[in-house]
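re the bet — no i am not wrong, look at it urself. input seq straight from the record:
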Amino acid sequence: MIKVIERLSEWKKIRVGRLYAKKTFGLVPTMGALHDGHAALIKKSIKENDITVVSIFVNPTQFNNPEDLKKYPNTFDADLELLNNLKVDFLLHPTYEEMYPYFYDYKVIETNFSKTLCGQFRPGHFDGVLTVVLKLLNLVKPNKAYFGEKDFQQYKLVKGMAEAFFIDTKIISVPTVRTKDGLALSSRNMRLSKDELKTAAYFPQILKLKLSDEKIKSLLEKKGFRVEYIEQIGSRRFGAVYLGNVRLIDNVKI
């Protein structure tokens, strides 16, 4: 049975205890609303470490749009069942007051890559992401931490932060898990209707075509997407679109 930790003082005592002194730790940070994509991260952590810690914390500092925060799905009971079935060792489930004892007076800011792609349209988003991830890395002190490639920009920024601040944790990327139609799994998919889910599958299909960014944008718009950006960097193309009021992101190798 998974042990749920809500008080960080309790976790700190566990982490330095003799029982785990020689154990390797893996961390999977999440905001809940877990799906098979999260499960892939967790399974990799369990395979590669003695102890796996999952965090569920809906981090308000990374939401540039307050409405998105209000609409973020809460599926805690189902999440807990999934974690138990996977035999996760610990769940960190702290409150805002626990995670931000000084509110948001102190934060991590990256000044280059975080200003591109999603960062162009979500001001402050990556400041919030990097800040909360640094807190979790300091709390858990994992040997490895796992991030999905669907959020590839996030993964690269977290990896860079860990290296820049000499954090003794290896940041591991895990390939995107997709539906049979190719749609990247995301908690936001829960907000799509059945018809919208069918349309959403065109997003990755069009994104990976060997065409110019402008042509890709045009094709997506013809399918009913409102395109925020399409940009190829090296051998990877990134995109963000809206379908109705739901924002979807993806990236593919081309």
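see?? The longest helix spans residues 125-140. told u. also The domain at 3-174 is CATH 3.40.50.620 (Rossmann fold). so pay up
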